[in-house]
Design brief:
eight-stranded antiparallel β-sheet; single chain; globular; six-stranded antiparallel β-sheet; mainly beta; 2 helices; Jelly Rolls
Length: 211
């Protein structure tokens, strides 16, 4: 009995370590007032996934994987990565993040993703209430050493500050493999705009991968 207990404790430690494995460059403001934090690991085939880790006082975020087999399917493993959605359609992130829409504030969304895609991947499409969709390229992307997958960072600035966002991760003329998504959001007073846009130097850490 004691031996089984030790194994379960170790398994729990390994799960926590794995769930944070791709949270490589968290924003310096995480955990401050008016911020949210959510990680999707996609450990099962539910096409409407709730975060594995979440800190969001305004509601429950969801990641909806759109499409059906064979264009969209969940894989338990793919080239050493565990819990992967493959899609030729899109993934829709819904994030409620504030009821504060007072003038003089704007929204920052900071998204990290571990993924593999062909050259037709067209970054992210973001929509908010009463605004036109926008497409954004990553501010940082690098292939993970020893893997076909890459790690990317997107930074999104929205003004005025909306009460929720829909983020569409959409491949164009290619297949997209998504292993993990990490999203932080915050509401920012206007005077910090210039400082916000300076992100500093990123340190790339190799992801722990399944054997």
């Amino acid at each position: 009995m004691k031996k089984l207990l030790v194994v379960l404790i170790l398994a729990g430690v390994l799960f926590v370590s794995s769930s944070l494995a791709d949270d490589l460059n968290p924003p310096s403001w995480r955990g401050q007032a008016s911020t949210t934090f959510q990680i999707w690991e996609f450990g099962d085939d539910n096409p409407v996934a709730v975060p594995d880790v979440v800190d969001n006082q305004w509601g429950l975020p969801t990641a909806t994987i759109v499409g059906g087999f064979p264009t969209t399917r969940w894989m338990i493993t793919d080239r050493g990565h565990y819990g992967v959605w493959k899609t030729s359609e899109w993934i829709e992130l819904f994030i409620p993040n504030t009821d504060n829409t007072a003038p003089g504030t704007f929204k920052e969304i900071y998204l990290q993703m571990t993924f593999d895609a062909g050259p037709g991947f067209n970054a992210l499409v973001v929509t908010v209430p009463f605004a036109d969709p926008m497409t954004l390229e990553p501010i940082f992307v690098e292939q993970i050493p020893g893997s076909d997958y890459s790690y990317g960072i997107w930074q999104i600035i929205l003004e005025p500050n909306p009460t929720e966002e829909m983020i569409y991760i959409e491949p164009l003329y290619c297949e997209l493999y998504v292993d993990e998504i990490v999203v932080d959001t915050r509401c920012v007073p206007e005077p910090t705009t210039i400082a916000l846009l300076s992100l500093g130097t990123f340190v790339f850490l190799r992801k722990k991968r399944n054997a």
